Amino acid sequence: MRMDRSLLVMALVFVLLLAAPFVLPPLGQSYLLSLLIKAMLLAIAAISLDLLVGQGGMISLGHAAFVAIGAYTAAIGLESGIENILVLLLLALLVSGLCALVTGALALRTTGVYFLMITLAFGQMIYFTLTSLAPYGGDDGLTLWSLATFFGSDVVQGSGQLYLIILLTLLASWWGVQRLSNARFGRVLRAARDNPDRTEIMGFSIFRFRLTAYVIAGMIAAVSGLLTMQHAEFVSPAMAAWQRSGDLLVIVVLGGLGTRNGALLGALFLVIVEEVLGSFLHEWRLIYGPLLVLMALHAKGGLSHLLFPANRTEKAGVTRVNGEQA
Amino acid sequence: MYGKADAVSLTLFLIQCLNGLQYGTLLFLIAAGLTLVFGVMGFINLAHGVQYMVGAYLVFAFQQLTGNFFVAVVLSLVAALLLGLLLEYFVFRHLYGRDHLDQVLATFGIIIFLNELAKVIFGPGTLSIEPPEVLSGSVQLTEQLRYPVYRFVTILAGLAVAVLLYITVTRTRVGMLIRAGATTPEMVSALGVNIQRLFMIVFGVGAMLAGFAGVIAAPIFAIEPGMGDNILIIAFVVIIIGGVGSIRGAFLGALMVGLFDTVGRTLLTEGLEVVFPPSFSNQVGPALASMLIYILMAAVLVVRPQGLLPAKGAH
Q1: What is the distance between the alpha carbons of residues A290 and A285, in angstroms, rounded to a whole number?
Q2: CATH code of the domain made up of A2-19+30-325
């Protein structure tokens, strides 16, 4: 029954998100739709990050770089005359997957806080690399004059269609990560997080499982980047800024680590908090910062647990970091 | 003609080396505190970079108030220490035994708060202060090479702190406790040492070192909100190269990164121009130059994932 409850929450959120584009515009609330799009794009990236942090105990502080890689690969593809969104998607997956493979293989030579520092450093490297791409806007970013098409049709361009595509992608990544977590793959990741030595002795190559998870997470984040590009019609190095990676981590932790709906709830929460605080105080970060400190000090287990305290079997608030001796 | 051009590029190279050394000592001041705090308390402090920024703003504010750079430096150091102790008392102390994620979240919150606070108090633009009159000249090193006195003084100050820190850690009682605390904190505590006070001292010293780095950087770099964020990440690169928890490692890593970044940039751009056409090297050069230190880090990770000079028995 407990399991059903979190599925129920997901179904409810999904139905609400599905209904939003039909209900909100007639009420004159189209602005809310763009907020929802922002939240969904964040949620896709956060879901992939939760595969690393929640399941694998790998705290990455450079995940936004993969979002930016997806966006830039697609944007550069568009600039070079590739218009089909499926080809761009393939390219984005390929480039982000390769980047994740290389940086992941290096970062995973270490564990724990080292891993965090290295992902942070590689994220920053990608940020600076993007700022030095002078032909593609450098520091200022790149405004796109044409958008991706679906075999020449503009069906993937209108904001209504794009909303649905983003929603479906969100559902697909939620479902995919869910399946992965429940499969043997997810069990090995969790085992490696909780007891790396035993897992290794049982014959699993932790490195390989973790690297696979890292590559998959990077590719999902890149899809979020591609959709962000298509929605914003603009890419900039700021997408890879380490603060964006921090935001993703905040979403995952606030939502509830390794829980089914944590990333989604966290993303919605972050966007709402930004909007509400920002509406009555221009310097809303003065409140947001201390809020994070308080959450870190007192709110264990994240939103999923504050909202649905019954879900105890979903092991949230995991206190071990990959492979580190206590 | 040839000889003269040669001398000019040699002068340039020497200046770059000095700049690299100066950047390296600055990085060391930041990385030393970061690595000590992590080595002893197992605490990952993302807010360390923002304490560097606070140092720079403090010296700016105190100089406006007092009109004297040296008085401002002393006041800034005291204020930086106080801020560090306050943060330790109200936030960090409660997070030592906790998950690294909680530490990341809390220190990320502090960064957001202090960056915004700096923006509110001092405005979003960049500020600058002049080095003090006494140190404002430059030294004639060779016929063509003049180097600002102030930068020399920062190099010397950085080196002096490094020596002082090294002696403290290896030769004094507190240093012994720090080393013991880094290896087996439970045992140190069981032997009757007030570990809480030790942690507070280490944290205060770390905060003051970061603040000191900000203070001496203020007349050289632009003072702006968020100036600590980038340097924090470079400090992480330094620590990864040197080995977590190790002062010697931080020193070696900082000098390597400082020299590699400054000298490497120049050599790379010049080198590319020799081999490739200018249009290509102008495009690729900057991108490659900004990746240099990360490539260095990756190379170290391949050869020695634990860092070049790791602390013995650290976390």
Answers
A1: 9
A2: 1.10.3470
